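Give me the 3D structure for PLOD1-3-like GT domain-containing protein.
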Amino acid sequence: MSSLEVVSAAFYKKTGRIRPFLASCEKHGIEPRLYGVGQKWESFCRNKVELLVPEIDACRSEYVMYSDSDDVLFQADAAAIMGAYASLVPGMDRVAMSGDVRCWPYRTMKQRLLGMSPAGDPFPFICVGLFMGPKALLLDTVTTLRDAWRKGAPDVPPKLRDDDQCWWMHELMHSHLSFVIDSGAKIVSSLHHVHASDVVRKEDGFHAFGRRPAIVHFNGDTSKHLRRGFGI
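Predicted structure for PLOD1-3-like GT domain-containing protein (232 residues):
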């Protein structure tokens, strides 16, 4: 089985906030490469794009995954994650991006994104809280993203200038990036806009829309009720 290394942004004064994440990693034999602990949060693009480039470059595994930390739980080990990735990307040669139920911020991309996923899949849009792929390709992809952010673009709204998801979608829109969306939650379920009634906790972990992913991403303020309800 191909090797996998997990890189996670953790821009918090202490690691207490990411204790559930670390516990889930330990349970499944994953040792995340944390960066940003004790450092100042500057912006999404600075912290999760520009500073991510050297972290990916320093990895020694064949495959690299980026994952948020404080709102993520692993439910499977690296072998299972790689198996899910191979199912999503049979050639194991493309970047896989976690999906979402809402198209944001470029809603004009809705039909294009829907066309990238099988009809009926519950997560056909993108969520940049988790993505993975071959190290060299992922490094090239995030470097392209960094360079685009540094250069700027007139069609990026000023209020979204430092939003990493905006730039992922912008570069896809202009065909500067290519990736596969995990629309069927084979690897991860992003629960940012998912109603609590669609999430069930069972003995083997969290299920959303009847699917048990390898990773659950509670993703942001709108899912705090889910995290509180499940004691996380």
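The two ends are 32 Å apart (CA to CA). Let me know if you want a second pass.
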